[in-house]
Amino acid sequence: MVTILPGEPVYSMFGHSALRVHDPVLGIDRLYNYGTFDFSDPLFIPKFAYGHLRYFLSVSPYRAALRAYERQRRPVIEQRLALSRSQRTALFRFLEVNARPENRYYQYVFFHDNCSTRVRDVLEQALGDAVQFANRPDPQKSFRHLLDPYAASLPLIDLSFDLALGTPAGRQPTPREAHFLPEYLFKAFSHATIETRDTTRALVAQTDTTQWIEGYDATPTAFNWPLATGWVFLVLTLGWTGWQATTGRQPGTRGDALLLTGVGLTGVLMCFLWFVATYEVTEHNWNLFWAWPTHLIAAAVLLWRPSAPGLRSYLGVTAVGAAVVAIGWTWWPQDLHAAVFPVVLATGVRAGWRAMGPDSGRDVGREP
Q1: In 3D, which of 33, 27, 38 has the Cα closest to residue 4?
Q2: What is the pLDDT of residue 214?
Q3: Fewest beta carbons less than 10 Å away: which of 92, 136, 182, 188?
Q4: pLDDT, tens digit, for every residue of 199-230?
């Protein structure tokens, strides 16, 4: 098995697993890669959003693949498998049949059926019960928290994960389920065995670092600018609201409408991922307790009819809802991203100020 460590592009942030078949006698040296997708597909984005993106098994010369990973500055580690001649033949034949155009496509499911889990599944299907995976390593973390180290250098991606993933991502995976990450599959192979009627031997005969990149940082970090931006936004919101309160200025409409629009669009996206897309891990998203899609309607009403009946009541309920989310922050059954907290507070402050503050329906209050 070949493990490629994470790279800089988003699609490579979790690393990669593949299978190498090398037979010097027959002149075969191929890399079988289940992590291939067609970005040139004109429907790539809609398919990805809907959860119907198909990946496929590609086959390439190993040395060419190695050079590509070198250009991406990604180390490569090999685990040589202790397979018998008949087992090697069975695995090779299985891969060749699976690589045919009519067989190579599969429905990609990030947590359960991806380039990493496919490597394990191929081995089990080709060799049967001879391959035994131990219940090691045990991650003892939720799916959500397993992703955190890989997103440490990409704060915006980390925020996106926490906004999109619902309560299913808060479940702790079994050791087998953790194989969706190449790092955990690598460790699982190290503990796996090949069992026959008379003997038991380790699945991995030898581990080699085929390619190392000087200066490679396996755990890069970056400044958490979404969190910093959120707190700066809250400070500005408090200052803006305080200035309006002390000077007697009426609350404007455009700034608050923009805030409600941003929060509302976030809620619409979450609803799409829950009710329309086929990603099970985006269901039951507690972020919808603060990101209400109805804020889009409120924003439109605020811009065009700021004195409309019911708007103050709606904003009052919004303020109460934001307060409930903030007060119960540590008790929610889903971990909410820290950058969301100041946004929730800012939304509550502005909604509460508009609900209890001076009437903004007159033209004088139409400033931002």
Answers
A1: 33
A2: 93
A3: 136
A4: 999 999 999 999 999 999 877 889 999 999 99
Instruction: Give the rounded distance of the alpha carbon of 334 from its chain centre.
Output: 15
CA dihedral (172, 174, 177, 182) positive or negative: positive
Domain positions in the chain are 2-138+175-211, 225-360
Q: In this structure, what token pair is assigned to residue 300?
A: 């439109």
Residue 275, burial from CB neighbour count under 10 angstroms (0-12, 13-18, 19+)? exposed
CA distance 347 to 368: 16
- Which has the closest alpha carbon to 149: 70, 254, 52, 222? 222
Domain range 2-138+175-211, CATH class: alpha beta
* Beta strand 200-202 pairing with 204-211: unpaired
pLDDT, position 250: 79
Closest alpha carbon to 75 in 182, 201, 225, 224: 182
